[in-house]
Design goal:
Helix content: 25-40%
Strand order of the largest sheet: 2-3-1-4
Strand content: 25-35%
Structural class: alpha+beta
Amino acid sequence: MIRHISIFELKNEWKENGTQKLISLLEEVASCKLIQKSVIGINITRIPKTAGIETPVFGDVIQSIDFRDRYAAAAYPRSIEHQNLLEQSKHMIEHVTAIDFEI
């Protein structure tokens, strides 16, 4: 099984009101037949910037997706559901960090 984790950082103008829109788009992606399980979460940690101390970068929304195998994970980016997510969210997203690993 392959787990794919994406951490989304919203553009500043979307941070307050865009979270629910992005979550709705991610929930739509979960209908992709390649996906066995999808979990979506909102960051609850807010770390204040402190002068001279480097803190981790926290995203705004996370999605964890489980695929049956590497073939399903490799096919996912070309799926209609993923392509729709890219098109619908590109104006909202500042940065995405992703990682795939075997479980």
